[in-house]
Structure formats: structure tokens, C-alpha cells
NAD(P)H-dependent FMN reductase (Devosia enhydra), 183 residues
Amino acid sequence: MKTAITLCGSIRKGSYNEILRAHVSGRLRAAGAAVEDIDLGDYPMPIFNEDLEADHTPEAAGILAGKFAAADIIFIASPEYNSGVSPLMLNTITWISRQKQGQFRHAVFGLGAVSSGKYGAIVGIYHLRDALLKVGALVTPTLLGVGPASDAFDAEGAPREAGIQRKVDAQVRELMAFSRGGA
Ligand SMILES: Cc1cc2nc3c(=O)[nH]c(=O)nc-3n(C[C@H](O)[C@H](O)[C@H](O)COP(=O)(O)O)c2cc1C
């Protein structure tokens, strides 16, 4: 069985990206993956600083790197802040990138972003994809940009728009098809 982890780059209560994360997580389960949902609030890390690395690398960095190295599929939903990657997500990736566990070389990554704007955080997703490509990750061609957030999901947390539903279908298909692990 393929293993997957899902993460959200916002730990805000009521986060729209968390709604997307939960939806894709359910879809991966339905497609047959064993999914672990990760709450980054449970993995606190200070702002990355090379001076901290020698003696103060947070335990969370090693634990998350291990989870990244072991998962066949990693789905990240993360907001766009000022056309960039959310500080939480970037800090997390930066700390993980300094571990030496092959953490970006095994999984296939799927990226999603929900924003209050109508362009669905697509600029921020490109920056997140660039950072992941830089560290050697394989990212699916389908990127899930969703917006405007306030209208995007129904009461069950499913995307309302048929076009977004099709993109979720496509991304889940790609994640299952391009990843390693069992059938
Ligand atoms: C500091 C900051 C910068 C933001 N910059 C952008 C932006 O560049 N583009 C955009 O579409 N939305 C931007 N937003 C709005 C977010 O898309 C919106 O707050 C979104 O709901 C955040 O994701 P969350 O609901 O998962 O926490 C910004 C919000 C904040 C707080």
C-alpha cells in the first residue's frame, strides 16, 4: 500500500488551506493510500538560523525529515503571503532541507493553495514548487490553485466548482500513478 502524508502551511483556526488539505487527504484514502495527517502546530521550530544548527536543531526537523523520507506521497496545502510562500511552510521546508535523510528524494509531491483572491494563490504555489524542485523533489504537473476562498467549499469541505473538482481528481491520479510503494 502506498503511504502518504498531508500538511498545511497555515495553522490559523478556520484555515481554508486546512479544508483543502483535509479534502485531498480523504481523496487519497479513497484512492487506496494509507494517509497520515500532519499538523505543523505539533512540530514547533524556531525561525531557521545557521547559528542554531550545531546545537539547537529542533527535534521536529529530524522527525519531519524522517516522515518525508518514508512517505510515497506528500500533499501540501499552503497559502500565498505577499505572492510568496507562507513563513510557516518556508521555515518548515528550510529546516527539513538541512537534515540528511533523503527527505525530498522518495515521495511525489502534490501542491495546493487556497487564497482569498480569485487567482487561487498560483504565484505562491510556483514559489513553493521552485523551492521543492531546488531540493530535488518531484512535483506533479497539476497544481491546485483555489480561490476566492470564501466561496470555494461546501459544508462538507468539498470544492464547489466543477473545474476544481476535476483538478483534484487529476492531482490524486497523478500522485497515485507517479509514486513508488505498492499498488
Ligand atoms: C500577510 C498576508 C499576505 C497575504 N498575501 C496574499 C497574496 O499575496 N495573495 C493572495 O491571494 N492572498 C493573500 N493573502 C490572503 C490569504 O490568501 C488569506 O488570508 C487566506 O485565507 C490564508 O490562508 P488560510 O485561510 O489557509 O489561513 C494574504 C494574507 C496575509 C495574512
